Amino acid sequence: MPRRYGGSPAGTVISVIADIAALILILWIALYLFDANTANSTVSWVHDAANWLSGWSHNLFTIHSDNWRTVVNYGLPAAVYLLIGHAVAGRVNRT
Questions:
Q1: Half-sphere exposure of 12 (CA within 13 A, CB side)
Q2: Are residues 41 and 94 in contact, defined by beta-carbon separation less than 8 angstroms?
């Protein structure tokens, strides 16, 4: 059976970290769009983690709709983490 994260252990760690970062960001987008209770400690933790992960991309684009602003401000970093993380992991696995 093939492994989901094949290659060297370093490449596997990089891929898993990129996937977890993207998952946190996507989870926050879903929680925001479904109006999750921000007083809940789990929701608050996900929001804080997503803010930290996406700090570099906040207000990169001026969008007036709150929902679209959240999708762009948190979705863009999720895509960047996935693309760069897996590209680096692929490069590590080739060496």
A1: 7
A2: no
Do 53 and 21 contact (CB within 8 A), yes or no?
yes
Q: What angle do CA 34, 54, 93 make, to 5 degrees?
A: 110
Closest by CA position to 29, among listed 1, 3, 57: 57
Here the tokens at position 27 are 């989870």
Per-residue pLDDT of the chain (95 residues; tens, 9 = 90+): 345 556 789 999 999 999 999 999 999 999 999 999 999 999 999 999 999 999 999 888 889 999 999 999 999 999 999 999 999 999 998 87
Nearest to 32 by CA among 17, 80, 40: 40
Amino acid at 29: I
